[in-house]
Amino acid sequence: MKRIFIYAAMFAAAIGGMTSCSDFLEVNPVGKVSEPDFLSQDGVDKLLTGMYAKLNSTDANDGYFRSTLTNYVYGDVMGGSANKGSTFGDQPDFTSLETYTFASDNSYPETKWSHSYDGVFFANNVIKVADQIKDELSAIKGESKDYYTETIAQARFIRGFFHFEVVKLFGAAVPYVDDVAMKENVNPKVSNVDESGNYIYIWDKIIEDLQFAYDNLPDTWATDKGRINKWAAAAMLAKVKMYQSSPYNGKNGTQNRWAEVKSILDDVMANGKDNNGTKFRLADTYEELYIAGEGDWTGESVFDVQAVVTGTVEQTSSINGPWHIGFNGALGTGGWGFYQPSYELVNSHIVDENGLPEMDGSYKKQPSLSSLDENKIPHTDLAVYTDPRLDVTTGRFETPYWDWTIPAVLDGWVRDVSNGGLYLNKKTIPRKADKGSLSISTVTCSTAKNFHLVRYADVLLWYAEALIELGQPQEAGKYINQVRARAANGFVKAADPTTMAETTSAYVLDDKVHGEKKANAAANYRIGLYPDSQFSTKEKATQALRWERKIEMALEGHRWYDLVRWGIASEELNSFVKYEAQYLSKYANSVYNEKWVTLPIPHNQILKMDGLLVQNENWK
Known about the structure:
3-stranded mixed beta sheet, single chain, two-stranded antiparallel sheet, 7% strand, 20 helices, mainly alpha
């Protein structure tokens, strides 16, 4: 949130001395404040600030990119949309996740586990303190209800959200820690099995939290507009129920709730709005969603991690963590060179003569769009027609990289081609023009660019998925094509590499949606709508739905989570490593086990829980 986050780091540090846990259930008091200091409206406001700060907490203590809510390590790299990048020997635990050779002692999932439960504890802190002065807070008018109720609703949303982060990665048989447990013991040891040894799945507990938020939060906030409103809570509630309805592998406490998903999304689509009062809609162009200062209030942002640049504090303005996703000198600031789009993802954007994706796998039989010549100079085949979203999502050599330049040589852009490939992350990097209040000029990836956790495009595709599951594939096609049609509204234009001023080129956007061609494109683009026949059966409609999520949500941290909930992770990821191994030898012996629809509960956490925490069924 743009105003609240100014003070986030300070209050987060202070609140950490109360009951925060840096290692799931271990308290590390800092002695700066005590609970009575917060027993007032002002004190609770500060607690709320610290709670929200956990959404954008990526400093060294939180493990940088191991715990960020972009989830690019898990959603993108494990999901086959990106390679780790940097060098092979850098961050071996990251490499083991990338190549599917990980075990239960991997430090990355453990850090994610700890950070997520830390977010739970911050939310419980708010509830615990607010309850002590309930009468005082209940007498204060809120936006639509009283201050106390709206405070509890925000805290319960964050509590449910961070529990869901755990569930998405480790399965639903994990500890649910509420404020009651914290009142009984500052370090509660909550089991994930009952007295008979049966797993306790926490779907319903998360749903109760999010339902309370949906029922009690205001439509909009007049000030502090980054706060969670009713409609963000509704969307997240639908998402949790959608995940619970998904197949996984029958070992995750799943339940069919597709009708409930559709009902909630009906309300969101009919009545949902952002905190500016703008009814939810798709942004006019795909590109504007990823431009600092322009992508925040397009009407598409349902739930954003808000960012603001304050002074030169890197950690409060970079959800991916400072430095590591930046390029090693290409933009004049240095970086570690992690997070490179995969060859498979890039070629997935190749389209046929109708502007439709090659869902039959033909794109895998075509040469990589980028390659090195005999002098190790990268070249890109710009004549091949691709979905125009490609050059917004990824950076390719010989195409404009935002307004910086046109990458032409490896130096400064890629640390090790043999480990990361020839493509560049782009969505999370600021433009050169984003200086002053919108970025830190000395840090490549520190920017006031919001990160979209839920976009309206998400909502439309979730709705389509619900319709398919409820036996209405033809109706679902309308919403899938609505997302696809937006891709025709913009494209990356050709530019002079020195001035980045627009220039002429022989390439075009072949817009099959509107039946026209647009000149001076950076490469050949083409986009068309799926025909009605694509939605004649559940199977065909599902194929289109899954493909559209792959392209539309690319490099936004969703791919692995989608694959595992759909129950197709082993099929898709083993196909991915076979393809990617043509270009990156590290994948030569990679195999994704069909049981891995969840990651293992971290071994150290099981040891600390003295037998109360049992490994999930997929990893026993």
